[in-house]
Design a protein that fits this description.
Blueprint: H1 2-22, H2 34-41, H3 47-54, E1 59-60, E2 71-74, H4 92-96, H5 101-117, E3 122-123, H6 147-162, E4 167-168, H7 192-199, H8 201-208, E5 214-217, E6 221-222, E7 225-226, H9 231-241, E8 247-250, H10 254-260, H11 268-278, H12 287-297, H13 303-319, H14 342-355, E9 357-361, E10 374-378, H15 402-409, E11 415-419, H16 433-441, E12 445-451, H17 478-486, E13 492-497, H18 505-510, E14 513-516, H19 524-532, E15 588-598, E16 601-613, E17 619-629, E18 640-649, E19 654-661, H20 663-666, E20 668-669, E21 675-677, E22 680-687, H21 701-704, E23 713-720, E24 724-725, E25 728-733, E26 737-739, E27 744-752, E28 758-766, E29 768-777, E30 782-789, E31 795-801, E32 804-813
Parallel strand pairs: 2-3, 3-4, 5-8, 10-11, 10-12, 12-13, 13-14, 26-32
Antiparallel strand pairs: 1-2, 6-7, 9-14, 15-16, 16-19, 17-18, 17-22, 20-21, 21-24, 22-23, 25-27, 27-30, 28-29, 28-31, 31-32
Helix pairs in contact: 3-12, 3-13, 5-6, 5-14, 6-8, 10-11, 11-12, 14-19, 15-19
Length: about 800
């Protein structure tokens, strides 16, 4: 009986053990909160497996042993670029020229659908750098020079992309768009003020509004420290102030640069350790892959610090539901049915048409008649599509050139002659000029297509990553070609295919019509022809200032008032074409500007104006709201863009446009870097381009800048009657008695009892600084942070925040003597 009972007990124990062994781990249980799942998973991982998660290999790798899924990535600036035949939209600078965030939201969504079809769930995009020097080769990847416009376009794209259960990784954080001399990643020494006024707002919007899941640190340097090692950027601002809980990726090779180029550490182990300690969750490059484990072995980091990087990547995988529904471990490089659908092509064509900017149209040369006798199509970019950087492999028949677009639009009786004149935009061989000149002489009009060179597998580019230019001249013999065609007497329509502005002083004087199409994507040829023949009315606006000369650079619309004169002795300081500029085949008039502050809360302002289509064609007007603070305690820009509304108006029709301004939009950073709205006068401008000032004005620009003709816009003033600012109230909780050297919790709580969102930094001291934490709080918001600190003798625990300080007396019990047993 006893043996039988023992057998039963053993059998029951064996069954129980098998049951436990088969029980699903907590991290694979979708009902368990994500942070608990991560807590359960990380201890099960080897160091090598942890390193695999934070080392980029077309994304983050899978761990089959633990059923950890992969997370694959692409570059989605204007397509799913790791593929053949994905829809190629215009480059982001062309998207920005639409001033239409709703349209760009659709581009983000389509890019997500095509990426997901290839098993990709993450995109290293969009570029949210505010481009402040047009010589920079990566200008084509940006949404232009205005922090407001970049923010609106970025948020729209991210929301469209992430709305399909994807992760966007905006880049390059931060200050990357203002390199010295336009040379990529060259440090210019940006101040905290310039960063917070110009370069951080777009990323702040991406995190706080669009909730971007990742962010990429830039190659550059801020305040003497590379961005990939910058605790102020990656911890204080990004995670503490903005509450970011996603992952940070280094730009490719940026951690190796800490040794090889920037020289702030001596070994790759130190570089890996510095990246992990600073908050870089994943490394693009080999630094983590080859050296993170060695940094751990050498004691340069703790395993808990390595785990924090791993946690950020795992959190993303859990949030995407990849543990429940994993993607394939390899992306698809071939063309898929989800790519380049008729709907996607129509969207690409729409973006290209809305983003093309008509700079000049003297004597109403445009639109052309479709039954015109003969058209000469000339130029190296006329039948050679330029896609720009970060483009996929082009599928057969995917790209529509300008020549093809023109041929498909004209009536059967119209003759189209083609002569490239030059083999490529970089060519200086003029032997084919004669053919082009002869074609122009035979024609009623010559469409000359010139510009930049940038596409995968093509010749050396004139724009793109690490392709910066010292001048803004047409490359090769392109200007000579334009002059030769103009000399024939045939009317010239200049079509520019480009990733950056050009200096066009000669063309602005001698060529009657100029159309900027940027890198217009796969439907660029059709979109260009739609505009040339009047099927579409041009409505794009410049998202970047076009200078007269590179000698004016940097030149931006939101410049600060000067203490001296503005003009050069040999040239005006004003641009050839300003930010926000663009012509239409119709004309619009503005009237009845109304500025209404909210009763009792005048920092909220409603601005309305009436816009009439005073021409004979239906068209879209891009109404732009600019603000000038007429007097302020610090110097502020002469104008700043604060609102955009694109509106379709039929010929003869009048519509009302409405904008809402908030106290945050009217605020400044004062001399102490405290955010405030100062009571006083503001000048409001609503029009179709950036306001300007009468010739000869040099003093008090803030009072005189504006619109002076109804067809340009309308300006007026209002008085802000209330000061706005944050009012932070701090509290500190800590035990009264602690043991010497033993960690204890000290909790800082901050509440904003003021009327404006702002940031504040808190620091704890006990003789020396114990720790710091930064908060950003909206009015009425409260946040807390708990420090784990230690003290060794009785004294004050001091909280310092701004000009405030509070003390808490802490009694410290001496540590018990160390008694060893004899």
């Amino acid at each position: 009986m006893r043996n039988s009972l023992s057998f039963c007990i053993c059998l029951a124990s064996l069954v129980s053990c098998i049951s436990i062994a088969q029980e699903k781990p907590k991290y694979l249980d979708s009902s368990v909160p994500i942070e608990q799942r991560i807590d359960d998973l990380i201890p099960r991982m080897t160091v090598a497996e942890k390193v695999s998660q934070i080392s980029d290999d077309w994304g983050s790798a899978a761990i089959p042993r633990l059923k950890v899924p992969s997370l694959l990535k692409t570059e989605g600036l204007h397509s799913q670029s790791y593929s053949t035949g994905a829809t190629i939209f215009p480059q982001p600078i062309g998207m920005a020229a639409t001033f239409n965030s709703a349209l760009i939201n659709k581009v983000g969504r389509q890019t997500a659908l095509e990426s997901k079809a290839a098993h990709i769930r993450e995109s290293w995009s969009p570029v949210l750098d505010v481009a402040r020097d047009v010589r920079w080769g990566r200008l084509e990847e940006t949404y232009g020079e205005s922090p407001y416009l970049v923010s609106r376009m970025g948020v729209a794209w991210i929301e469209g992309f992430q709305g399909e259960d994807m992760i966007a990784v905006p880049k390059h954080f931060a200050g990357h768009g203002q390199p010295m001399g336009g040379r990529d990643s060259q440090d210019i020494g940006l101040s905290d003020r310039v960063m917070r006024e110009i370069h951080l707002p777009s990323f702040r919007a991406a995190i706080e509004e669009a909730h971007a899941g990742g962010i990429m640190a830039a190659y550059g340097v801020w305040d003497g420290v590379p961005d990939n090692a910058s605790t102020p950027l990656l911890q204080k601002i990004l995670r503490q102030e903005w509450g970011f809980d996603g992952f940070v990726i280094s730009d490719c090779g940026a951690l190796a640069n800490l040794v090889e180029k920037q020289g702030i550490v001596q070994t790759m182990s130190e570089a890996a350790a510095l990246g992990i300690r600073s908050g870089v969750s994943m490394n693009c490059g080999t630094t983590y892959h080859d050296w993170a484990a060695k940094a751990l072995e050498q004691g340069l980091i703790k395993e808990s610090q390595l785990d924090e990087s791993v946690r950020a990547i795992l959190r993303a995988k859990f949030r995407l539901g990849l543990f429940e529904h994993p993607e394939a471990d390899k992306m698809v490089w071939e063309k898929l049915p989800e790519y380049d659908t008729p709907e996607a092509r129509a969207l690409a064509r729409e973006v290209a048409a809305e983003g093309s900017v008509l700079l000049k149209n003297d004597n109403v040369v445009l639109p052309l008649r479709k039954d015109i006798g003969t058209i000469a199509v000339i130029g190296p970019d006329a039948d050679s599509p330029q896609t720009g950087d970060y483009s996929p492999k082009i599928a057969s028949g995917q790209m529509v050139t300008v020549l093809q677009g023109i041929r498909s639009h004209v009536k059967p009786g119209t003759k189209v002659l083609f002569a490239p004149g030059l083999e490529s935009p970089l060519s200086t061989d003029t032997s084919k000029f004669a053919e082009a000149i002869d074609a122009a002489k035979q024609s009623d009009v010559a469409v000359v297509v010139v510009g930049d060179s940038s596409h995968p597998g093509g010749p050396e580019g004139t724009t793109g990553e690490n392709r910066d230019g010292a001048t803004l001249e047409f490359s090769g013999a392109q200007r000579d070609l334009v002059k030769a065609i103009q000399a024939t007497g045939t009317p010239v329509i200049l079509v520019i295919v480009n990733g950056k502005p050009f200096t066009l002083a000669w063309e602005a004087t001698h060529v009657p019509a100029i159309l900027v199409t940027w890198y217009p994507g796969e439907e660029g040829g059709n979109a260009t022809a739609d505009l040339l023949f009047g099927d579409r009315n041009p409505s794009g606006r410049l998202p970047i200032t076009w200078p007269r000369s590179t000698g004016q650079l940097p030149l931006n619309y939101d410049y600060l008032p000067s203490g001296r004169r503005y003009d050069y002795y040999d040239m005006p300081f004003t641009p050839q074409w300003s930010f926000g500029y663009g012509l239409s085949f119709t004309n619009f008039k503005y009237s009845n500007l109304r500025i209404v502050p909210k009763d009792g809360d005048p920092g909220f302002v409603t601005v309305t104006a009436e816009v009439q289509n005073a021409g004979s064609r239906d068209g879209d007007e891009v109404s732009q709201l600019y603000v000038t603070e007429m007097t302020s305690s610090v110097v502020t820009p002469v104008v700043e863009l604060k609102g955009v509304q694109r509106v379709s108006i039929k010929a003869g029709e009048t519509k009302e446009v409405t904008f809402q301004l908030s106290p945050y939009q009217l605020s400044i950073l004062d001399s102490n870097m405290v955010r405030r709205v100062e009571s006083g006068k503001f000048r409001i401008h609503v029009g179709g381009s950036c306001p300007t000032f009468p010739n000869g004005v040099t003093d008090r620009l803030q009072e005189k800048i504006g619109f002076y003709a109804p067809n340009e816009g309308i300006s007026s003033e209002f008085t802000e009657s209330k000061d706005y600012g944050a009012q932070f109230v701090y509290s500190l909780e800590a035990p009264e008695d602690v043991k010497a050297g033993q960690p204890f919790a000290a909790t800082v709580t901050v509440r904003n009892e003021g009327s404006l969102t702002d940031a504040t930094e808190t620091k704890l001291y006990a003789g020396s600084e114990l720790g710091s934490w930064s908060f950003e709080l909206k009015p009425g918001e409260e946040k807390s942070h708990t420090f784990q600190v230690s003290m060794f003798k009785t004294g004050n625990l001091a909280l310092v925040a701004g000009t405030q300080m509070m003390n808490r007396e802490i009694a410290v019990e001496a540590a018990a003597p160390n008694r060893s047993t004899p």
